[in-house]
Structure to design on (68 residues):
């Protein structure tokens, strides 16, 4: 616990002592990973456009519309 700097986290102590994690993959909704990937991809594109300094409405609007 000290090596991992988890002394302040009581739930981590309980899980480590029990020898199992709290993760249960069955509780996740179907295709959740795919939806998260799609949403993340749609956010990355407009951020890249803005970071590249593109200011034309014709360049900026399509990626912003995808997010909307």
């Amino acid at each position: 616990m000290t090596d991992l700097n988890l002394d302040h986290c009581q739930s981590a102590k309980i899980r480590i002592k029990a020898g199992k994690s709290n993760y249960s993959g069955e509780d996740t909704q179907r295709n959740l990973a795919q939806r998260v990937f799609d949403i993340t991809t749609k956010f990355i594109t407009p951020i890249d456009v803005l970071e590249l300094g593109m200011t034309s409405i014709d360049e900026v609007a399509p990626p912003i519309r995808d997010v909307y």
